């Protein structure tokens, strides 16, 4: 059973559960997010920044068919500079 607060990843079609991160991790993510957001904004970089929960689907051989995606992760922070990668 997966409990509230448990994080999950799908790797090779298998669901892996692991415990939620510590407070120190959340503080580090917040700090990195602030620096990254400010860099993108101040330098007018044509990228978008997203935070978890945000699925990143990792296709094999470029095949984006839903039933061919076996790896799905939710990184703390995702920077996307190619709009065609969003869906």
Order of helices and strands: EEHEEEE
* CA radius of gyration: 15 Å
Work out the strand percent.
25-35%
Summing up helix and strand content along with how strands pair, one would put the structural category as alpha+beta
Overall domain count: 1
Would you report the number of β strands? Answer: 6
Question: Poorly predicted ranges (pLDDT <50, ≥5 residues)?
Answer: none
How far is the N terminus from the C terminus?
30 Å
Cα shape: flat
Query: Quick check: average pLDDT?
Result: 81
Strand order, main sheet: write it out: 1-2
Compact summary:
The protein has 87 residues and is an alpha+beta fold. Helices cover 23% and strands 28% of the residues. The chain is built from one helix and six strands; from the N terminus they run ββαββββ.
How would you describe this protein?
The protein has 87 residues and is of the alpha+beta class. It has one domain. It has one helix spanning 23-42; strands at residues 6-11, 14-19, 48-51, 56-57, 72-73, 77-80. A hairpin with a 2-residue loop joins strand 1 (6-11) and strand 2. The two termini are 30 Å apart.
